Amino acid sequence: MTIDPRPTLDAPDDDPWLWLEEVNADRALVWAAEQTARTAAQFADAVYVADRDGLRDALDRPDRIPFVTRRGGLLYNHWQDAANPRGLWRRTTLAAYQSEDPDWELMLDLDALAAEEGEDWVWKGATSLPPAHDRAILSLSRGGGDAVVMREFDITTRSFIEDGFSLPEAKSSTAWIDRDTLLLSSALGEGMATTSGYPRTIRLWRRGADPLAAPVIFETSAEAMGAWGGIDREDGQLLFLDKPAFFETLVWFGDTAGPRTLLEVPRDARAAWHRGWLVVVPRTPWTIGEVTYAPDTVLGIRRDAYLAGARAMEVLFIPAARRALSGFFWCAGRLVLSILDDLRPVFTVWTPGEAGWTSADLPGLPAIGVVHVWPLDQEPTESDGTLLVNTQDPVTPATMMLARPGLATPTPIRRAPALFRADGLVVTRHEAISVDGERIPYVQTGPAEPTGDAPVHLTGYGGFQISSLPYYSASVGRLWLAKGGTSVDANIRGGGEFGTAWHEAGRGRHKSRSHDDFAAVAADLVKRGVTKPGRIAAEGGSNGGLLIANMLTRYPEHFGALFCTIPLIDMRRYSRLLAGSSWIAEYGDPDKPEEWNFVRHISAYHNAAPGQPYPSILIATTRKDDRVHPGHARKFAAKLRAMGYDNAWYHEPAAGGHGYGKDNAEVASFAALGAAFLRKSIGWQ
Description:
Elements: H1 26-43, H2 46-59, E1 69-71, E2 74-79, E3 88-92, H3 94-97, E4 105-109, H4 110-117, E5 121-128, E6 135-142, E7 148-154, E8 159-160, E9 166-170, E10 172-178, E11 181-186, E12 201-206, E13 216-219, E14 226-232, E15 237-245, E16 248-255, E17 258-262, E18 270-274, E19 277-281, E20 286-288, E21 291-293, E22 298-302, H5 303-307, E23 314-317, E24 323-331, E25 334-341, E26 344-353, E27 356-361, E28 370-375, E29 387-393, E30 396-403, E31 411-415, E32 425-433, E33 439-447, E34 456-459, H6 474-479, E35 486-490, H7 499-504, H8 511-527, E36 536-541, H9 543-554, E37 561-565, H10 584-587, H11 593-599, H12 604-607, E38 616-620, H13 631-642, E39 648-651, H14 664-681
Parallel strand pairs: 34-35, 34-36, 36-37, 37-38, 38-39
Antiparallel strand pairs: 1-2, 2-3, 3-4, 5-6, 6-7, 7-8, 7-9, 10-11, 11-12, 12-13, 14-15, 15-16, 16-17, 18-19, 19-22, 20-21, 22-23, 24-25, 25-26, 26-27, 28-29, 29-30, 30-31, 32-33, 33-35
C-alpha cells in the first residue's frame, strides 16, 4: 500500500482530499456511503440494535417533561415521540400543564405536513405576534440544517396563510413590527450573506412585497459575523445588532428608517435593559474615569441616565477565581444572575429602585448538580415574573419547578422518569493537574469502589465559553453506566466554568491548553487507580470534535478509543468553510502567518502522520450539517485510511444538521453506534 501523508505541516495546502468538500457530489457521496457501510458492518451487531431500540424507546417515553413557553397566556410545546417523530406543535393552559395528564390542543402535525408536501421537515421554532399571538412565522429546516424555510401561520385556524409571508430556504430570522410588517434578517439574496453565511443586512419586509426587494435599513460588512434585528416592545424601538466578530456586538436603537442611537458600551460587553434600567457586563477590563472594572463584573444604572452620559454605576457582582457569572436575564423588573460558585449553582435576584438595588438568593434550589432558571413567558413585556427551574445531576432525572412572582420557594410540577438503572452509582468530583500546573476539575460517575480497570467514557468541550456540566444523560446512562461503566465530564479551559478568564486561558493561541487539560484528566484517572489508558473511551462533538482529533495526534497513549463527532479538524481551511470564519475569534486566523504559527499546532488534519500508535477512532458527521462543514470529518477519515490506519472508521447519516439526528430514532442510532464502537475498541461488552 502506498502511504500518502498529505496534507502536512510543511505543505499545508497540498491537499489531495479537497474533492470531499463537495458535499453532494457523486464521487464524495459514493465514498461516504462505502465508509459508512464498512462501519455498520463492523459495529452494528445485535447488541447495537438492542441498545439503539432501547435508547429510542427511552427518548420517546410519554412521561418525559414537555418544555413550554408561554405566549399570550397559553403554554406552547413542540413534542416528539415514536408516533410523531418530527413532532407536534401544541398548546395548553398552565393549570392543565401542572396536572398529571394535560389536555393539549394541536396546532400543527409536522409529520403530516412533511408527508403531504414530500419534504424532510424539521421543526426550528415559531415567532408569534404579540399581544394576541394569533399569527406566527414558523421556521422549518430540510433535514435539520441551520438554514430554514419561513412561512406565516394562522394560530386561530391552525393553518398556513395563503399568500402570507413566505421566505425560501436561508439562514434567516424575523421579528414582528406589526401585523403587516416584519424585520427580516436573512442571508437570502445576492450579496446578503457574510463570509460566515449569516445575514449581512436587515430589511423592512411589508406584507405582499417580494422579500428580495424589501428595502435594506441596516447592513454590516461582508467580513463581519452577521447582523440581526429585533424589537424593544417596551418603547417600540427597533434593535439592530451588528456582530463584527463572535464575541463582539454593536447595539443600535432606531426605527423603520434605520439605526439612530448607538449604545456606547465596549463592543465585547454584554448589555440588557428592562423597565428603564440597564446592566452592562464587560468581557475585558473596562476603565471609566479612574475606576477599572474587571471582566464579568455586573454593573447597573438607569438607562436614560447612561444614554445621557452618566457612568456612576452600581456594582452588582464581582467575579472571583472560581466564582463566575454564568448568565443573566431580566424578568418582571428583576435581574436574575446565574452564578457558578466553584461549579455550584447559585441564583441571585437583584431588584432596582429609587433607593438603590436590593438582592436575595433564589431559595429552594439544590447546591449540587445542574440548575437552569429562565422566564416562563416568551415576551418580557407580558411576564408576570414566573420562572421555570430545571434541576438534575448524572444519576437524578430532571425535575421541573415553577417559581411564582416574588421569592417564594419553587414548586415541583413535573418529574422526568428514570431512563436507566443508577443503583450503586456515586457522583464525585476530582481535580487533575495540567502541564502548566493549573487545576482541572472533573466529575466522575460510576461504581463507588475502583477496580483499576474501569471502562471509562470521558467527554469535554473547552470552547466558546460554554460550560460542560454534569447532566442526566439517557445515552450515557443506558449505553455506559447501566452496563457497569464509569463516565467523566471534564471542565477544561476554553469553557465558561470559571468565567471569561477560564475561556481566555483556552482561546486563540492558548487553545492547545484545552487539549492538554483533557489529557491531564485522562492521566489522573489512571493515577488515581480508576482505570488504565486502554480502557478510556473519549467522545466530543463540534469544538469537542476538534478536541478528540487532537487527542489522536497529540496524546494517543492516554486512550483506548475516540469518538469524534460533527467536528472541526482542518484548521487550515476551517475559516473558508460554511460558518467557519465566524470562529476566527476563538481559534485564530490561519490565513495570517503569525496566527497560523499557533493554529497549526491544533490542526489534527495536518499533524496526523503515518506509523503512529493511534487508538481506534470513529469520525462521524451528518450530511445536512451546514454549520461545521462535513468535509472536516470526511477528509480526516480519508487521510487516516490513506496512511494505513485500518482502525479509523467513518459514519455519515444523510440528515441531522449540527447534531446527532433530526428525531429520537436518528439520535438513538447515532449514539448507539458510537457506544458500540467505543466499547468494542476498548475490549468491553
